[in-house]
Amino acid sequence: RLVASGYWPSTPVRPTFAFSLDLLDFYLQLFADCAAPSEAFCETLRQFHGAKEVYHCNDKGHPIEDPFRRPWTSAVQWYEIAKSSMQAAIEKTIYQERCRLLPALPDSTDPSGLEVLRQGRASMRLRQLCPACFASSEWGRDVRTFPDVIIQLDGNFHHRRNTSGGQSPVFYEPELFLDDAFVASIGKRMEDQRAAHRGGQPSPQFALPEEVVAACKESFKVAHEKDSHGMPGFHDEKGLVVGSCVHDIPLVVCNITTPGERQMYAIAIIQQIMAELPAPATLGLLYDVGCVLDHSCDLYGYLGALRPRVTMAVSILHSYGHQWACQLAYSPRRRAGFGLANGEGSERIWSRHRRYIPILRRSGKQKRVFILDRKFLHSAAVGRVSLGRWMRRRFKFLASKTQETKRILHASALSSPILEDQLAKQRLAAVSVRSLAPKQVHTKVQSFMKLQNDIEDLQVSIQHVRASLERDLGPSKARTLLSQMTESWDLLVARGDQLYAELGVEEVYPRLRGVPPGIVQNLILARNLKTRIRKRVAERMWERARLNRAAGGVHQPIGQKLFQQIKNGLTRRSGALNRAVKQFNTYVHSIRQLYDSSWGIALPQALVEQELECPAEDHDIWQDVFLSQESPAEPWMMDSTVREAITAHLISRRCEEEGRRLRLYATNMAQW
Ligand SMILES: [Zn+2]
Ligand SMILES: [Zn+2]
């Protein structure tokens, strides 16, 4: 009777309060858009009534401090559950009718023959979430050239929940959240697979050398450790991982419950999505550490039978965290099938939900899942409504990209077979053993550089002392006094020469035979310095990324204190970077002055410090160009315009894929 007259009770039996349905709807919208906490809303209600001199009193006639909070919270919760189950019932009825009216599509179970498209449908849930991605009725496109669906994965460690929030009884069946027990069972199975591997099988052929993958893994591990500063034992849920489509629509979400192990969340999400797709479906995955995950899947067989139908790439946003050899293999710009997708959408999802972080940190386990699930569904609905606008924007973007790459390719006058050939050689050079400087050489170069600095410092101080002594005592006396200093300087120089001879540069880099020793020395020093500069730049970009994420997006303002802290850190470090860049350019300059093209070595490019503020993913700083080949130098090494043309060539191919994908989205949406 209450509901029929437009009110919703605070409890199912013997309610003391009932709230108007309009007010509840208004609040739900307010919460979805502004994350207004219920405490604040109840306070507003109290003040609002107080201004009209309406008070809620207890038995003794005294006004109650906080009359609305408990009944309101409970009414909101049950009202929202009722609404969502009503929606589910309606959708189920429509679905049943549709099944009755439309001829059934056979669901293929034969995974062989990937080239042939097969009839089949994704689950109702996925089709409703993103019709553009999932409403297709044909599946099984070649995973190596054009996977059926592209999704992006990302973790966030800000969405923690304090253990003290407690567990509440289950009252809601989430649509996006994976069950913690399911994820744990996947983790257990992965553990078994790792143990079985230790039993000793021959390792399969990998896309990348082990040390490259290890370096990528390390760089992200460090970044994540800085990110997840939660206290051990203090948080039950330590964060969230969300799998979304390229339209920023969340598809699957899971809680991070264990520190350390991260791959199981990714595997759980992939398995969930694949389980909801027809058997021949293929999947492209964009993930921060896609390279590491791909490697582990090959090594331990995590994905089992799904493996041949899943391809992975790394998100462009954090490409600076990857080795150059890894970027050559895993950048979505260099990997067929990913079109212009970049994996940045998850950032937008996080920024939309960051307002709920403080509200949900102290809430109960089930309540948090309930609220987050509803919020993610809300942003999915918003995303679905704006799919048309997304398409229009994307077509525009595609047109401008296509034009730009055409211009660069035309100017370079290089044909696409030549560029393909150069591309293959570039990739090969990056993973060849020689290009990874041997460790012992590296340490020797380090000490050589240190010695070089000492020699220079000493020389400067000798000059200073000599100048002042000569002024005060006359040249002859000064010379005797200085002889000891000069001796130690000679000693240092001799030690430097010896160390340089020990470097064994010619054996390590036979191609450098015939190049004057001074040049070789500068080349090696420049290369080492560039590695250091690259590391610094990457560190700075990590810092920025953390800053942006703390703020909830690039364009969000953050607290003054945090801003100052990080800014000070950045300025302090930029001084060191500045000096390193200057030194590097000095090396480049000295090589350039004596350069002889008959040496057949590539000239390193000077660095521009302003460009290092935020270098693009194909910027020269990420590329290892000189000193890496044993065979005669290739055009891509010698000429930066060839490298630019290679990038343009790659992007033009991604543009073709993007065009094909946009047409597929349009067909899917029309079909839906
Ligand atoms: Zn989508
Ligand atoms: Zn990598």
Structure at a glance:
The chain has 22 helices and eleven strands. The strands form four sheets. The chain has a five-stranded mixed β-sheet, sandwiched between helices. Strands 1-2 form a two-stranded antiparallel sheet. It has a two-stranded antiparallel sheet with strand order 3-4.
Strand order, sheet with most strands: 9-8-5-10-11
Biggest sheet layout: 5 strands, mixed
Sheet/helix structural class: alpha+beta
List unreliable stretches of 5+ residues: 106-115
Strand content: 5-15%
Number of helices: 22
| Overall outline | globular
List bound small molecules. Answer: zinc ion
Helix proportion of residues, in percent? 55-70%
Distance between the termini: 39 Å
Number of strands: 11
Calculate Rg over CA atoms: 31 Å
Averaging pLDDT over every residue, what do you get? 81
Number of domains: 5
Key features of this structure:
KDZ, alpha+beta, 5 domains, binds zinc ion, single chain, five-stranded mixed sheet, CxC1, 7% strand, two-stranded antiparallel sheet, 11 strands, 58% helix, 672 residues, CxC1-like cysteine cluster associated with KDZ transposases domain-containing protein
